[in-house]
Design brief:
Layout (H helix, E strand, L loop, with lengths): L2 E11 L4 E11 L4 E5 L6 H8 L7 E6 L2 E2 L7 H7 E4 L12 H11 L4 H14 L4 H4 L9 H13 L5 E5 L7 H18 L2 E5 L3 H7 L2 E6 L2 E6 L1 H4 L3 H6 L6 H11 L11 H18 L1
Helix pairs in contact: 3-4, 3-6, 4-6
Length: 286
């Protein structure tokens, strides 16, 4: 078990007893790709900040890589190297004069030698698709928004985390930038075995990338399962003011109009094939 939460509650307003998290039990294994969704204020960001001890719970127990982070004097350096967190609009956190120095900032704080720091910077920039020699001496502030975001992610990857958490990473990106980001996350998960936890309001991203989806509401986990399992609860999601993926919504509307069609489909290619099959079956019957 890589991360485990036991009966975790966090109260952010002690006077009114307002709970950001309410009795959360959760287990996260190695190499999972987890999508977290929920309306604003549902507790998503508070939850993921528990994973690397940026926020301490009011009550309950949290374990990260075998370390009880809610115990006395936990090894927070190890925890925060294990769990890397990329905040929304991470490019706003860039501050060094060169890309090299920005990506190297974290490893340097680990007191690594110069050669190891350089190695980590090279690997991290390669992971995010930025050629080391072409980019290392450039200012991060002269890059496109998508490139700046990749530099910021590289800075987290240079710490060699086993878990990468991203909070709305595609916010503000154009369609091309979103596709490049999706490709990057797939590669990090599939080729480098990094456990990824993704917060996003884009349901297409969640369904196309995640193997497990967690739905939050008022500090509680209300759904937890595969994309097919979670998005089969159409009425419940609508009651939570959460949209279905566009493709899935179209299939549900076709089904409501009498089509004998699957609704547990999340990509255009799969949907096209299913519609062709349905039309073929109808023509055969007629």
């Amino acid at each position: 078990m890589l991360i485990e939460l036991k009966n975790v509650t966090h109260i952010y307003d002690q006077e009114q007893k307002i709970k950001a998290l309410d009795s959360i039990d959760l287990e996260i294994d190695e190499h999972e790709f987890i999508g977290i969704v929920g309306h604003t204020g549902s507790g998503k960001t508070t939850l993921v900040q528990m994973f690397n001890s940026l926020i301490k719970p009011t009550s309950g127990e949290i374990y990260v890589d075998g370390i009880k982070t809610t115990g006395k004097k936990p090894d927070l350096n190890h925890v925060r190297q294990t769990v890397g967190l990329v905040f929304q609009y991470p490019e706003h956190q860039l501050f060094e004069e060169t890309i090299y120095d920005d990506v190297a900032f974290g490893p340097r704080n680990l007191d690594l030698d110069k050669e190891e720091v350089e190695k980590r910077v090279k690997v991290a920039l390669d992971l995010v698709g930025l050629e080391y020699e072409d980019f290392k001496d450039r200012s991060p502030f002269n890059l496109s928004g998508g490139q700046q975001r990749r530099v910021a992610i590289a800075g987290v990857l240079a710490m060699r985390p086993r878990v990468l958490i991203l909070d709305e990473p595609s916010a503000g990106l154009d369609p091309q930038g979103r596709e490049k980001l999706k490709d990057l996350l797939k590669r990090l998960h599939q080729s480098y075995n990094i456990t990824i936890i993704l917060i996003s309001h884009r349901m297409e991203e969640i369904t196309q990338l995640s193997s497990r989806v967690i739905v939050m509401d008022h500090g509680k986990i209300v759904l937890n399962g595969s994309p097919k399992e979670v998005f089969s609860h159409k009425d419940k999601l609508e009651n939570l003011s959460l949209e279905l993926p566009e493709i899935t919504e179209i299939l549900y509307r076709l089904k409501e109009r009498g089509c004998d069609i699957r609704t547990d489909i999340f990509t255009v290619e799969e949907a096209v094939n299913e519609i062709i099959n349905v039309v073929g079956r109808q023509n055969h019957v007629n």
